[in-house]
Each structure stands twice: as C-alpha cells, then as structure tokens.
Design goal:
Helix content is 39%, strand content 13%. It has 18 helices and 18 strands. Strand 15 and strand 16 form a beta hairpin. Helix 17 packs across helix 18.
Length: 609
Amino acid sequence: MKNTNRQLDQKAILKLLTAAMCLVLSAQLLAEEAVIKVSDKDRPNIVLILADDLGFTDVSPFGSEIDTPNIAALAAQGLSFTNYHTAASCAPTRGMLLTGVDSHRNGVPNIPEALPPEQKAHDHYQGVLSHNAVTVATMLRDAGYHTYMTGKWHLGKEADLLPFARGFERTITMADTGADNWEQKPYLPIYEKANWYADGKEHNLPEDFYSSQYFIDKTIEFIESNREDGRPFFSYIPFQAVHIPVQAPRAFTEKYSGVYDEGWTLMREKRRLAAEKLGIIPPNTKTIVTPGTKRWDSLNAEEKRFQSKSMAVYAGMVDAMDTHIGRLRDYLKAIGEYDNTVFIFTSDNGAEGSDPIAANGLFELWMNSVGYNNEYKTLGEKGSYNVIGPSNATIAVSPLAYYKFYAGEGGMRVPLIMSGPGIAAKGELSKALTYVTDITPTLLTFAGLDDHQGNYKGRPVETISGKNLAPLYQNQAEFIRDENEFIGYELGGNKALFRGNHKIVFNRGPLGDNKWHLFDIDADPGEAHDLANSDQSLLASLVHDYDSYAADNNVLAVPENYNQVEQVFVNGLKRLYGTQVIISLVGLFAVVVLWLLWRRRKNGLSSDA
C-alpha cells in the first residue's frame, strides 16, 4: 500500500513538474513573440532610392535649377552628404551599394558588357554579383523584413543572379545597362530586346508604361500587399532616370523651355554659385573645363536650340522622378508609415557624357530600324532617342571635372541624402569622406542588425569594407575615417585613392593623360590645383597606398589599347552575331570608309581642276 501511495505521489509530482515546464515554455514563447512584435514595430521601414547617371548638382538642395521639392524635403528633414563617392559606372556601384564589399571582391569590377577577354578569363572579373557577397536584402529578409525592388538591376540576369534570388521578395527588374522609358525595347544595338523580369520570370510591360511612374506604382502595390502583417519593409527603387535615352513627358519638358538657352558655360557658373551659397562646396571653388567640352559660341543657332531642349528634357526627367517620389511619400503618410520610414536618396555615378548618335554614323541606322528618332519637336517623348552629350553633362556635374566612367570628381562624387527616424541631424550638411560601401552597414544599423564579419549562416563570405554612417547622422562625430585610412578605386583602368582631404587620380584617354594627379578635394573639389609637383612625397605615399589596395584586391590591368565604349559594342555584337560576323562587319565598314575617302579626294581634285 505504501508503495502504491509513493507511486501516486511521484506521478502527481511529475504532472506538476510537466505543467510547470509547460507554463514556463509558454511564457517564454509569449515573451519572444512580444519581443518580435515590439522589434517589428520599432524597426523602421527603409526606402533606398537610386537615380541613374544623376550629376552632383542635379537636385535643388545641391544647387540645381531643376524643381525637386520632394528630394529637397528629405534634405530639410535629414542630413546631406557633400563628400560622398561612388564608382564612376553603374553596375560596380550597385554591387557595392547592396553588399558593402569592394567591386573587385564582389564580382563586379566593371559592367559585364565592357570587360575585355583578358580580364573576363578570371573568376572575379565576370561583371555579375558573386554569391560570395551577401546582399543587404538577404540580411534584412532573414531578419523579418519584407524586401522589394522595382527598377534597374544590372548585376546578372541568369535565374540565380536576378534580385528575386538575391534576397528580394517581390521584384520588377530591368536587367540590362538601360532601356527605353516608354516601351519595352532596347536602347543599344548590343541587345536583341529589353530584358524585363517580375519575380524572376520574364515580364511584359503595360501599354501605359513610363519608367519612373511604373516603379513607384509597383512599389506601392508591393507595400500594400503586406501592409496588414505589421512587419517592416525594405524597398529598393533604382530609377532609370536619367540614363540614356533621356525621356520625359512633354509637360515636364515644357517647364524648362528656354532655361538652358544661355548654354553650358553660364549654366555651370550658375550651379557653382548656387552650390556655394548652400554650403555644398567651399566659397570661391575654382573649376576647370573638362577636356572635350565644346565652346557654346561655336554652335550655330539651330545647334544651340537643339542642345537647350535636350537639357530641358533631362531636367524634365529629373523633375518627373521627384514627382513620383512625392507619390510614394504621400502614400506612406496616408497609411501612417511615413514617420517610421528612413529614406536614402543618391545616384550611381556622375552624369553620362556619351553620345552614341554622334560617335557612330551607323547608330542612326539602327535607331531608325527599331523605331527611334531624334526630331526636335518630339524630343524626349515616346519614340524619341535623346542624349545630353558631353558638354551638357558638365552642367550636371558642375563645378566638378569629368563625368561618368572617369575617376574625376564629376564621375564619382554624387548627392547623398538621408532622412527619417534615428537621424538627429535635420537640414544639415556633412563633409565627411564617405563611400558607396558605407551604405550596407548603415542600413543594417537602422534595422538593429550586426555586420556578418565575413561569415553568414555558417559559410565564409566576403567581408564588408564600408563604415557605418551612424556617428555622422546622430551628430556624434564629424568624420568616420581617420587621416590614415584610405579608399582605393579602379574601373576600366581609371584609378583613384582617397586619404584624408587628399585624392590621387589617374584617367586614361581619350580625355585623360595617363598620369597621376594630386588634389586636396576638401578645399578644391573642382580639381583645379594639381599638387603632384609641389608635394611629391605625399603623391608617392598615396601611390604606394594605391598599389597596396590593388594588390590586396587583385585588381587587373586593362589592355594597353582598351577603350570602354568600343569594348561594349564589340562584346555586344559578338554575343549577338558571333566573331565571324563581327570580322565581316568591320571589313565592310573599312571598305565604306575607304570608298568615302576616295570619293572625297576625287571630288576635291575635280574642283581644283
């Protein structure tokens, strides 16, 4: 009997212990659920807006005459970075922006279309985002964020390389270097079609498509689809504005009719003075004229009229982008999420100075074959192919020198604006040296996440090299890099290194001279005063640092005769038509050129006679 009672007591005790454990576990689960709910509520939404080929002073808070009230509102509510740098070309910037990893380590040292075969033979020179680099979208999604992307990707278009496979939950993706903004058609003869994808599958655009409007439409749609679950979202919006072809609805273009009639020389000076007044650049900043810029007074009246309207379309495209950003701001206000949303606005590189129409006589034949024209009356509208060209590009980057592809400040220094919760600086400027790799660690900080330190989910990955910008936007520090820390850079043989206030820069032809130059870019952002001869010891020290950077990151030299634009067309045509066809086309082109020269010489001799 005693044994029976003892067994009953043991069973009772066991039941009590089991019940107690269940209560403890339930309480723990409830506590964890409460923490998740609190953290989701407290963690901000993040909107990362990336303009394409937008110059340093192309928005009003940086000195532009272009009307950008929504971007200006973000600047007034947050912190503007006046010494922020990117790569001078789109894909390398995008790879670094989304991973915090240097372009020579993340697989995107140059756009894939521009890689010469000597470099393409190496695994780290493929021009697509390596799986050894973890995207910020992956990290945020794994931490409970919804992740959306609408816009240009250009980091790979194989199924496992598209953004839908790289951490983004919902996507609308244009996978190429660029595309038309009105229709689903390519903008260069190196593509058979414009490659669009939705959630990883091929996608057809709607009839009423205009790129800036569509990207915001889809962003709002994605956010709305999950609004009720209370989880924060990360929305990446890489616009096509203002990449070529430069296109805008007529109403936006007409706002700027006549604004650029004075020409690029006077407009550059107006921008410089406006930027000085705003504190974006130091007083009395000296400037140089970028090599290859035409004299405005050398143009005839018709040429001036056309160039003025080309720039008006450009301004209209920036204005339209800002208007659609305003639609997103209004939507977030309407659903009560605006005050809990961090906005980051920036550009992938400086303004585009290329002009394929002027550079290649055959280009216009291709344009006509796919339904493009560049008629003055409808410039920028549906069916129009518009570019601003190298001389107008000097307005967009004013007062800086050079533009896209080159390592001058005009190619690398772009606006950066941050606003939203956690940003103590309101309507302030930071002149701290900052770099595109700094964005990912900063986004992780907003979300309350730690840097992966080179190991993600048990596998080794490329280490984040960027710095967290929190000390700057929280008004805890004036700089995030000490005077001995440096940032190295190379793209297509153009090179730079930043350390403290100084920068060395090496630009190849056709605009560069293949020599190192030294500037104090804090006092001289226009790169007008070369210090290479007067401070040779500093130059040598910085070149030594660059050599260390190049060795540590396995930077490969370009072939001696390398030309980026030519390589793009050779690679594209070879991919589309094969090597033999390219050789035949080159031979045919040479015959045509020789025939034209012979005709010109014959006509000249006839007239002399």
